[in-house]
């Protein structure tokens, strides 16, 4: 489905058009979900799971046999589409008689292709998936069309009501914004998520209060374009103001900022990093590239000089800052010199955790329609991605080494599967930490001084 075409809207069919009900209608009790992609998807899956629990369905692991499987998909690359199809096939091998629901961004972008996957019973767009729990009885009875996909911009920024808990009681993804008004030439997300919509401050604060009551210690503030928060709200709300309002709430918790466009790093936000102890000294940047010409061709809102200036100011405010970032390599017309500029900026900014994506042409985007002669060959895209990841590993080694012997405040998460007798957690800087069992329980915030690094992880003494 083209990003420029009208959205597909499917209404309930007439009785003669509906599918035949399956034997055993009313017997769906065990439901399994799988989430692909971004933190926004993870938040939305949690809302779906809460609604399923409220409707008395039993939630089971996706690897278990279930009566109904729901895959909440991503479509940022062709590889994501392939993985979604693979998940569907894998689930139906476990139970060929199960109902299969495919939802999310891949379903929104190309519902016909998703509906054609063998075994798929229901295709739900981003606006429709939050009502999945209420559609199950009609799905069992054969009273639904196979595809229900509407305009992604019609819905609210987040599902109505509050999430009472997150799957991980220690950390919750706090969605404060939905959609994007920017049409970057490589990106399809604005067409499957709609325009930017913000969650009112009062609703965000109520959600934080609810989760804090059940022991959530870290809130990862997220959205599709989180830095644009408040532009659609009355009263001059912005991201810095929202974070300040949340930080004022009672409780021993911390805030982590996710997927921030460099152009949205305002002076007010920098001041908050300097002054607010609840705000973690870690930022995940939506960086994408480091070459001025490539950034312009991508239709990004900044150039490398602005990135340097903003990050220098942010590091002055938060000296312990650790950076992660999205980095896209192999964009059409990216020369070797342009790629070298991207490497140089990642090195200069000291991005310890680059999330590297080789360019994936999407026909619905301007970047995907650039002639083949100007595309970077796929093997070269793969090679450049490997070089960028190698640089990230080198930077990460330096950043971890500097953290040895320096006090860290760690959120303890769970027993480490690979190191019996140890607990795994994250420092405020996002660096992973191992602590001996018995030192703290999951969900506790503890102080420690790491004594060494093993396997890209800080290790604290007993």
TrEMBL record:
<dbReference type="InterPro" id="IPR006467">
    <property type="entry name" value="MiaB-like_bact"/>
</dbReference>
<dbReference type="InterPro" id="IPR013848">
    <property type="entry name" value="Methylthiotransferase_N"/>
</dbReference>
<dbReference type="InterPro" id="IPR058240">
    <property type="entry name" value="rSAM_sf"/>
</dbReference>
<dbReference type="GO" id="GO:0046872">
    <property type="term" value="F:metal ion binding"/>
</dbReference>
<dbReference type="InterPro" id="IPR007197">
    <property type="entry name" value="rSAM"/>
</dbReference>
<feature type="domain" description="MTTase N-terminal">
    <location>
        <begin position="29"/>
        <end position="145"/>
    </location>
</feature>
<dbReference type="GO" id="GO:0035599">
    <property type="term" value="F:aspartic acid methylthiotransferase activity"/>
</dbReference>
<dbReference type="GO" id="GO:0006400">
    <property type="term" value="P:tRNA modification"/>
</dbReference>
<keyword id="KW-0819">tRNA processing</keyword>
<keyword id="KW-0479">Metal-binding</keyword>
<keyword id="KW-0408">Iron</keyword>
<dbReference type="Pfam" id="PF00919">
    <property type="entry name" value="UPF0004"/>
</dbReference>
<keyword id="KW-0963">Cytoplasm</keyword>
<feature type="domain" description="Radical SAM core">
    <location>
        <begin position="166"/>
        <end position="398"/>
    </location>
</feature>
<feature type="domain" description="TRAM">
    <location>
        <begin position="401"/>
        <end position="462"/>
    </location>
</feature>
<dbReference type="InterPro" id="IPR023404">
    <property type="entry name" value="rSAM_horseshoe"/>
</dbReference>
<feature type="region of interest" description="Disordered">
    <location>
        <begin position="1"/>
        <end position="28"/>
    </location>
</feature>
<dbReference type="Pfam" id="PF04055">
    <property type="entry name" value="Radical_SAM"/>
</dbReference>
<dbReference type="InterPro" id="IPR002792">
    <property type="entry name" value="TRAM_dom"/>
</dbReference>
<keyword id="KW-0949">S-adenosyl-L-methionine</keyword>
<protein>
    <submittedName>
        <fullName>Threonylcarbamoyladenosine tRNA methylthiotransferase MtaB</fullName>
    </submittedName>
</protein>
<keyword id="KW-0004">4Fe-4S</keyword>
<dbReference type="InterPro" id="IPR005840">
    <property type="entry name" value="Ribosomal_uS12_MeSTrfase_RimO"/>
</dbReference>
<keyword id="KW-0411">Iron-sulfur</keyword>
<dbReference type="GO" id="GO:0005829">
    <property type="term" value="C:cytosol"/>
</dbReference>
<keyword id="KW-0808">Transferase</keyword>
<dbReference type="InterPro" id="IPR005839">
    <property type="entry name" value="Methylthiotransferase"/>
</dbReference>
<dbReference type="InterPro" id="IPR020612">
    <property type="entry name" value="Methylthiotransferase_CS"/>
</dbReference>
<dbReference type="GO" id="GO:0051539">
    <property type="term" value="F:4 iron, 4 sulfur cluster binding"/>
</dbReference>
<dbReference type="InterPro" id="IPR038135">
    <property type="entry name" value="Methylthiotransferase_N_sf"/>
</dbReference>
<dbReference type="InterPro" id="IPR006638">
    <property type="entry name" value="Elp3/MiaA/NifB-like_rSAM"/>
</dbReference>
């Amino acid at each position: 489905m083209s990003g420029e075409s009208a959205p597909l809207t499917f209404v309930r069919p007439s009785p003669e058009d509906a599918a035949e009900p399956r034997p055993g209608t009313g017997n769906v009790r065990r439901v399994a979900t799988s989430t692909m992609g971004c933190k926004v998807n993870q938040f939305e899956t949690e809302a779906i799971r809460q609604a399923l629990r409220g409707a008395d369905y039993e939630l089971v692991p996706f690897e278990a046999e279930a009566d109904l499987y729901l895959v909440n998909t991503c479509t940022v690359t062709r590889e994501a589409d392939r993985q979604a199809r693979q998940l569907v096939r894998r689930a139906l091998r476990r139970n060929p008689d199960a109902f299969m629901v495919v939802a999310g961004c891949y379903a929104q972008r190309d519902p016909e292709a998703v509906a054609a996957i063998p075994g798929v019973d229901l295709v739900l767009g981003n606006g429709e998936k939050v009502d999945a729990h209420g559609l199950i009885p009609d799905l069992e009875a054969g009273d639904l069309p196979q595809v229900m996909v509407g305009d992604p911009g019609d819905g609210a920024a987040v599902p109505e009501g509050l999430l009472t808990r997150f799957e991980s009681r220690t950390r919750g993804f706090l969605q404060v914004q939905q959609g994007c008004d920017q049409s970057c030439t490589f990106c399809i997300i604005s067409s499957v998520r709609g325009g930017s919509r913000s969650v009112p401050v009062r609703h965000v604060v109520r959600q934080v209060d609810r989760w804090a009551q059940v022991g959530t210690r870290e809130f990862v503030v997220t959205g599709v374009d989180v830095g644009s928060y408040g532009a659609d709200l009355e009263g001059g709300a912005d991201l810095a103001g929202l974070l300040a309002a949340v930080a004022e709430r009672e409780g021993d918790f911390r805030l982590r900022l996710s997927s921030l466009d460099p152009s949205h790093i305002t002076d007010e936000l920098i001041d908050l990093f300097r002054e607010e102890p609840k705000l973690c000294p870690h930022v995940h940047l939506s960086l994408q590239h480091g070459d001025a010409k490539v950034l312009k061709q991508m239709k990004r809102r900044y150039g490398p000089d602005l990135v340097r200036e903003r990050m220098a100011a942010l590091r002055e405010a938060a000296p312990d800052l650790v950076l992660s970032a999205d980095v896209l390599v192999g964009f059409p017309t990216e020369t070797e010199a342009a790629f070298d500029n991207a490497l140089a900026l990642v090195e200069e900014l000291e991005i310890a955790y680059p999330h590297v994506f080789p360019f994936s042409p999407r026909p619905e985007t301007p970047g995907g329609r650039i002639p083949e002669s100007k595309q970077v060959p796929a093997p070269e895209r793969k090679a450049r991605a490997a070089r960028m990841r190698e640089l990230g590993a080198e930077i990460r080694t330096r950043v971890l080494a500097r953290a040895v012997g320096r006090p860290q405040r760690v959120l303890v998460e769970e027993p480490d599967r690979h190191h019996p007798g140890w607990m795994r957690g994250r420092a405020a800087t996002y660096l992973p930490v191992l602590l001996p069992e018995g030192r703290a329980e999951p969900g506790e915030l503890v102080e420690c001084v790491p004594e060494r690094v093993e396997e890209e992880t800080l290790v604290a003494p007993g």
